[in-house]
Write the structure tokens for this entry.
Amino acid sequence: MEENTTVATSASKNYSADGNEVLFFTIDDTIYGIEIKYVNEIIGIEQITIVPKIPDHIKGVINIRGKVVPVISVRKRFGIDEIPYDDRTCIIVLEFEDGNQVGIIVDRVREVVVVNKNDISKTPDAKNVNANHYIKSIVNLDSGIRLLLDCDKLIKDD
Amino acid sequence: MAKFEAGMEAMADMYVFETTSLLEQLDQILMKTENESSFGEEEINEIFRTMHTIKGSSAMMGLENMSKLAHAIEDMFYIIREDHPVISSMESLYDLVFTASDLMKAEIELLQDDEYTPTDFTEQMNKIEAFVAVLKGGEGAALAPAASAVAPAPAAASAPAPAPANSDPSQTTVRVFFEEDCKMENLRALLVINRISDSCSKLEYSPADIENNPDTAETIVKNGFDVVFIPKPDSSIDGVVDTIRTTPNVKTCNIISQTSAGSSAAAAADDDSTTVRVHFEDDCKMENLRALLVVNNVRDVCDNVSFEPADIETNSESAKYIIENGFTIRFKSDKPNMVLQVIESAPSVKSYEVIENTAAPQPAGTAAAEKPAETAAAPAVSAASPAAAPAAKPAAKQEAKPAAAAAKPASGGAKQSLISVNLNKLDTLLDLVGEIVITEAMVTSNPDLKGLRLDNFQKSARQLRKLNSELQDTVMSIRMVPLSGAFSKMTRIVRDMKVKLGKDVDLIFEGEETEVDKSIIDQLNDPLMHMVRNSMDHGIEDNVEDRIKAGKSPKGKLTLSAYNSSGEVIIVVADDGQGINPEKVLAKAEKNGILTKPASEYSEKEILNMIMLPGFSTNDQVTEYSGRGVGMDVVRKNIEKIGGTVSVESKFGQGTNFIIKIPLSLSIVDGMEVSVGESIFTIPINSIRESFKVKPNQLVKDTNGKEMVMIRGECFPLIRLYDLYDLVPGTNDLYDGIVILVETDGKCACLFADELIGEQQVVVKPFSSLLNNYNVKQNGMAGCSILGDGSITIILDVSNIISDF
């Protein structure tokens, strides 16, 4: 790993003073990040129960230890064609402040990185770029530029 | 600023709970007596007791404003009871008490906020005082009321008045210092004054403007707070000083001058003092504070109260001492029996024993018999001279309290069989039971057991199932609450509106003992209120003449009824008013542009239900109660939130019925599982009429190719579930799959599915809010549930499926 990035262990959750932990995952070749505070757990793909008459990107609901949690396909959300699930496909279970849980299906999960505040820059304020505001900010790491997603926008209605 | 003194926070919850239920009780008594338009002895005593308890516990919590207001009402009822004055205006009396009760309720609400500042009740108290003055003046001259009406309550109480029996008043000056850093010394000083005002016939203090001028706090810190007083004949200097010393935050209280030696009543006090040891209920917690409450109560009825341990207010360790040795209280009163009753009636007191009584013991009978004669004497004096009325008040009050306490039946032995439980705990319990139900299914229908012959296992499994369903029923019944609570809240609304709108209406309850789940009741209050308001405001005719012309009784009728029907509770709010004019509704809907098809195509039922659309109000004018078009929309939303439906029936000119249907419980339903392709749906058993295979001769098609099924001479529409939900079916051959005839609200339809899987109890889990945004409810899905094998089934809401079809 590079100097300013460290692999976070589960014990190091209090980095918020000068940095945020971010979980990175990939869709095709693009790496996206979400803030770790939203992440509840990561599970393998499970049997998804279809719920009729809801938008395409919501694949249905899954049973997580007695809780019924809706799952969203990030691919569908981004308008990318879906690929068959394999053993690397993951569901990242997000938990929001109101206690709501939502799962998002991603191709594969990469790593958790502590991102310095200085490395985070805003998205450009333009009409045609990032029109649906899924991208919250841009992270400039030594390993490359990555996109930090806005979890609220991701699950909310357009 | 902290709301309560240290150690009191823990009591706050209990205080809020107790006071709220007391106030509700008060409302009910008032409502009852208002209907009968007379106060019985019993009711007055009840109001007394309620107010007395509120006063006591509020004072204990340091809520002076609440305590004073309760005190004022207590006084008023004292006069009503003792003097039996001719009450010229019952309405204003009720208004006074109702408003006061509302103010207190609002205050309790406020108390639960973090930022709490006590509300000033002076205005209301002045009104009460004015009324009291009128009551008293009723027999003499009505001169005084105006004067006492403007004076704030404490001033009225402390106004110099002739001290009838005491010809040789001994004027004493004391200087009071408060604890350092206790803040707001001026208000604390005011508290001192309020506490002693009842036992002093003359009371002056400096600085004098403590109530209105916060700057006096500094002066008090520097120079102390001087109080000049003359004790009443029935109290002593020492008693007053004692009272001052025990006021919260008082550090020192020194007598700095005594103008006249006088005969110290305190010296003689020991002759007839009584010592009582009090024991509290086991595990009632915070015995020291409960002891303080007892002391406060006793102080209200007699003087010279001392107690041991003495530091109960500040030292929580004293609780332990009290548990071990009991709490010893010593007081002087010429009616010790009455004081004992006060002690006994204090909350959480288990037992008490008189350990020393120097006064001649008074048999209980005499005490009771003597009381009315004694108390009647005091007001008689005040009636003779109306100017002295305010001064007579404190004296009267002293008599009033023991009387109120004495009225409470001596019920020492009876154990309470009711407990209050936090709703969260019940929710957790219900969740657990739900999990057990699922797990039971998981065990008994485990795939590993398939094909095995396990007689003993099956026997045990049946036993488990029986016990589980009993457990479930019990947990459900714990959560069941009768609707009467929600209904009786409406009495109050109807009463207020009757007065404001000048309509005469009878409110009738039917089936208020019907029970529904607690979580549903909580959601029901708002919709009910809106509907009742609506019926009162729009439903019942404005003019009595209109009613008479229509051949109706001049008095309006508003009926709230509830009953059970096939797993649902049905609540009907019915009025016999003018009804809804469908043409007017339609015209308004057209104007608002909410029609989706030509106006002529709407059925009457559809039109009526339009009034529940957002922003719809047929009322031309916005009144205090309704007309903004929010109400009925809120009703519909709230009812739908708890899984219910609401509909309107109305005959123009004859009245309107609002019909609410709510599920008995939100959590566990008996369901029939059916499969459609890979999906499993659960249809609630109570909406299924039958299931069968269709024969070719039963199938009928209309001109659009829509299918219908003929059963025993009746035709029902056929809904193919896979079509409805765009699923890939296991079979689309009608003769291969299964048809389920469902019925709800008198409407029937046939649902087509692949096959029946079986009957099972399922625990309803609501959809996450993410899915609720996409109208899953309107698409006929009520919720989902987890099956024994961990897979998820969607519970269908038949009424929504049918109504859409």
